[in-house]
Amino acid sequence: MASNAQTEVAPEKKIQLEGKVIAITGANRGIGLGIADCCLANGAAKVYSIDIGAPEGEFEGVLKRYPGRIFALQADVTQEESIQAAVDKILEDGGVLDGMVCNAGRTKHKPALDFTTEYREMIVLIKMQLYSSFYSARVAARAFIKLGVKGSIVFTASMASYRPNKRVPSAPYGASKAGIRNMVHTLAMEWAQYNIRVNSVSPGLVKTAMTYWVPQQPDWEQQLKYYGGMPRLAEVEELGGAYVYLLSDAASYTTSIDIPVNGVIGIC
Is 110 a catalytic residue? Predict the structure, then answer.
């Protein structure tokens, strides 16, 4: 007699991205490109960088290692229609999207009293962090639902969302990153019904073009002794494992969490 019970699929035991198509905002350089590199190293079929500028030297290095598997699409991630056009292009190319990393962002570190209204500094910063992340996630969710894909969305938050950066504070930056972590919980709750998982990663101090000044501080060694932890900045590729796990089918029951990757140093 035939059974009406659905055949259960065995949980994935290996952490890998074999055959998956991943989009990453802001992946022409820095943390985003490091994530792309790690995704490709773990079997992703294709990775698309959605960024406002054209790729440069760093990107070309990854392209040489993975020819025909990493692509750059230009878009303004603060505009939902621009992100939508980029995702439409991805779907035209291959007909599928499995994961979205909402990574694009910017920094502006200064005391709260020094932020100006003349140049709308705070608004620009929050728009880049929150608006772009929300729009990217929503465009991806719509694609997953349309395709019937059990998709994964991973946001780049920050250790600044947990506690302030004492040396170079930025209330708007920390607040926007904390907003991202809160948004993760809400979107995970809303989209669980579609088998869409939503999580985040909170990097600590990472070696990028935006943090070159950190180890150049005259009291950097003293800071490391005070804060403890691993006495160095992270390489961008060292963040990749957290993203790969959250994007993989091995994390099929993991949603609404944040993974701090901070070497215990936290914020200096």
Answer: no
